[in-house]
Amino acid sequence: MQSQPAVEHPPLSIAIQGLRFSWQPTAEPVLAIDALTISSGERVFLHGPSGSGKSTLLSLLAGVHTPQQGSIEVQGRALERLSQSQRDTFRADHIGYIFQQFNLLPFLDLIHNVTLACDFSAARRQRLATHGTSATAEAARLLKQLGIPEALHQRQASQLSVGQQQRVAAARALIGSPPVVIADEPTSALDANSRENFLHLLFAECERARTTLVFVSHDQALAPLFSRSVDLSEVNR
Ligand SMILES: Nc1ncnc2c1ncn2[C@@H]1O[C@H](COP(=O)(O)OP(=O)(O)OP(=O)(O)O)[C@@H](O)[C@H]1O
After folding, report:
1. Which keywords fit this entry according to its UniProt record (predicted)?
2. How far apart are CA 222 and CA 100, in angstroms?
3. Which end of the chain is more exposed for a tag (fewer CB within 10 A), N or C?
């Protein structure tokens, strides 16, 4: 019998096994996920009812919290085996996080809000150096790519519209090419056109660096733009 040609699977970016997480030790787990894997470079739309645990799952993927049971591997590292300070370093080096409220520093200009992510990560600085660029030059390139004109780069973040703040937050997550970007409803304050436009720019930057994207949103209209949809209420039992 002729053997089948081997199917090439891209390496896993995220692998969850036997996960159980409760906010209180005696409470029922908020998350009980037997298995969930995400390949490198996938763009995943994570959805589910309010309170189903989407933000909780993102905080576990980012190593902010650790599960009581099971394993979460990100880029081959089992986060639950790391100390808190090792997880903080791992997050700064490997994970870009776009928060719902963006978390920009209002008194800093846009360039410095973006380069801040490099101040905490030797790995991001090293990757920029490998590509022959500096944090400041890359911050300017990303801001322009994401639709923020150069004339605004020296402005304080507090002087921006919500849509502009969101783009700065995305640039900060992307600088230094972390292999994983996590976004928690970053488009909820935007109109439909701005949302799609922002997503196309975000996808282009993710493709450039082959970044894995895990994106939480309630807006089902965005789902077809992603390579895969995960309904948390289906994988969480
Ligand atoms: N810091 C916390 N301490 C205790 N319980 C929490 C905490 N954060 C979330 N929870 C609880 O965990 C459950 C899941 O919350 P989570 O915010 O992860 O849901 P979600 O799916 O992101 O919701 P939404 O779509 O409304 O943002 C909820 O019951 C919530 O009350």
Report:
1. ATP-binding, Nucleotide-binding, Transport
2. 16
3. N
Interval 2-48: pLDDT, tens: 555 555 555 899 999 999 999 998 889 999 999 999 999 999 999 99
CB of 85 sitting under 6 A from ligand 1: no
* pTM summary value: 0.92
Q: Which of 20, 22, 56, 65 to mutate to test the pocket of ligand 1 (most atoms within 8 A of CB)?
A: 56
ipTM of the complex: 0.98
Rounded mean pLDDT, 213-225 = 94
- Domains of the chain in sequence order: 41-66+84-235 (3.40.50.300)
| Beta carbons within 10 angstroms of residue 149's beta carbon | 9
Q: E strands along the chain, which residues? A: 12-21, 31-39, 43-47, 69-74, 77-78, 95-98, 180-184, 212-216, 228-231
- Taking every pair of C-alpha atoms in the chain, what is the biggest distance, in angstroms? 69
